[in-house]
Design brief:
CATH topology: TIM Barrel
Strand order of the largest sheet: 1-2-3-6-7-8-9-10
CATH superfamily: Aldolase class I
Radius of gyration: 17 Å
Shape: globular
Structural class: alpha/beta
CATH class: Alpha Beta
Strand content: 15-25%
Helix content: 40-55%
């Protein structure tokens, strides 16, 4: 068993085989959003919410890593890239840049690495640069024995829909073949459609949260995703950017780990 396989196993609960991962890397591109102004307080609330892993930027790992530095604490997953998407940065266009190396993130305490694979880009050049960057990151993670999580999403300007099942299935498979140990992607609308995506991917699939939903709708959506065979969730805004964050995280954690395996 490789070092990456051992560390990948640590992202998942040993009893359920699933992961309740909380993402707080959104503020890397948007800045201090509501409920995230106090970054240390947010990390502490996620830890108290029982997350198996926290996804965040290298700078916040450097600043707040001590908050998870205890036996049984959540794993740290470092976002080492920056996609210029969603109207949150200046100018127009589609670009992708690495902002840290795998070695630097690991030296800060990261247990795993995450990068984007963004499909349906308007320009083939941008997609090609994205692929080349992932290939280089995958090689570095293999050398260091660190898991690579690829967020494979059809968010390019030419995408018919971020939840397009055929595009999502294509991208998760590409991510796995580039060397991902785990893939994060969109929920595609139903358990049946999600199962087709999962079956097309030879590595564990986790679903992202997307725009904020009322808690009852979020739990229903999560249940459908789990029934479709996903191995867990990576929720950001839907877990912490809400007045009922503590309740939401407790309920989500229980749903992820206590639902029967599909």
């Amino acid at each position: 068993m490789s070092g990456a396989e051992i560390r990948t196993g640590r992202l998942f609960n040993p009893d359920s085989g699933r992961s309740f991962m909380v993402a707080m890397d959104r503020t890397l591109s948007t800045g201090p959003e509501e409920f995230a102004e106090d970054s240390a307080g947010l990390v502490s609330s996620i830890v108290n919410g029982g997350a198996d892993a926290i996804l965040m930027s290298p700078g916040l790992i450097k600043r707040h890593g001590e908050l998870v530095a205890f036996r049984g604490g959540p794993a740290l997953v470092a976002r080492i890239d920056f996609p210029f998407l969603g109207g949150v940065t200046q100018g127009k266009g589609e670009e992708f840049r690495l902002i840290a190396s795998v070695e630097e993130a690991v030296s800060l305490g990261a247990d795993a690495i995450v990068v984007f694979l963004i499909g349906a880009q308007r320009e083939r050049r941008v997609f090609a640069e994205n692929l080349a960057a992932i290939g280089a990151v995958a090689a570095e993670t293999r050398r260091l024995g660190v898991p690579l999580l690829v967020e494979a999403v059809p968010w390019g300007d030419a995408s018919p829909s971020p939840q397009d099942p055929a595009l999502v299935a294509q991208l998760v498979r590409i991510a796995a073949e580039l060397g991902a140990d785990v893939v994060k992607t969109e929920f595609v609308g139903s358990s049946e459609a999600m199962r087709a995506v999962v079956e097309a991917c030879p590595v564990p699939v986790l679903v992202l949260g997307g725009p904020r939903l009322p808690l009852d709708q979020l739990l229903e959506r999560t249940s459908k995703a789990l029934s479709g065979g996903v191995r867990g969730v990576v929720f950001g805004r839907n877990s912490w950017q809400r007045p009922d964050a503590a309740e939401a995280m407790n309920l989500l954690r229980a749903l992820v780990h206590e639902s029967p395996m599909a």
